[in-house]
């Protein structure tokens, strides 16, 4: 059986290898075996490999936060799942041909759900959904601003906000992203920069802008805070810059702006199982209806791990990179 492992922290394409490992055998009581159909390369995967995000304590280790597949075998005592069922995998070692997991680490998904979209539904869609739901009571006509707007989370935020009558301001690094984001439903696309607050307010005037979603930290966080209405909230959910999140005393004291952090592990996976399943049922419906879709740039087999990770590490991409371990 093939799987991807890394033996030390470093640049992902340099430290990850596709290796032949022992067959995973038969499921123990309460376990299932899943053949992995597709697994996304998530930014958090790259950060784990680099040693900049919570991950495995011992190396060598396997990785792959997201994945989907079909059940091949079930152990005794497993209910609600059968061989052939399609599942989303909650375990975090999905860059492999097969995984053996506790049945509780799988969520059944519809048979007709697009396999590649299903492989990207664990992390980014609930992140977008919960950040829009949990921090500010958004009303139709309100505005939300986000950076890294061309990410999968960014696309989901644009489309989910539009269904609620909420407008989006989308901060990007290059002009070439304006058109695709506008076609996806973005109301306003702007380039990052120190004068972001002035440029945004020149476009929207005194419109209510209570929520900012920050994937980067550092000055990018500060620039979003410059745009917010009084009593607004910046929600940081990413480590992209590797720098501390920043707002000024003027933001906090004079304008009452607050800074919060979002981590899916805490915000979703510590909830009761029935609530987790309800969130993913809603996401499966949104994908099936076409309300949310993440753009895909390429798929790779496990053997081409170096090429796949080099591709995923590029800044100028138009979509996600996925492994398809079993074609």
Report a brief summary of the structure.
The chain is α/β, with parallel strands linked by helices. Helix content is 30%, strand content 23%.
What labels would you give this structure?
327 residues; alpha/beta; Quinone Oxidoreductase, Chain A, domain 1; Rossmann fold; 2 domains; seven-stranded mixed sheet; six-stranded parallel sheet; 12 helices; 30% helix; 23% strand; globular
Shape: globular
CATH superfamily descriptor of the largest domain: Medium-chain alcohol dehydrogenases, catalytic domain
Number of helical runs?
12
Number of DSSP E strands: 16
Structural class call reads alpha/beta
Helix content class: 25-40%
CATH architecture of the largest domain: Alpha-Beta Complex
How much β-strand is present in the residues? 15-25%
Rg for CA atoms = 20 Å
Distance between the termini: 14 Å
Tally of separate domains: 2
**Biggest β-sheet: count, sense, barrel?**
7 strands, mixed
Average pLDDT, to the nearest integer? 96
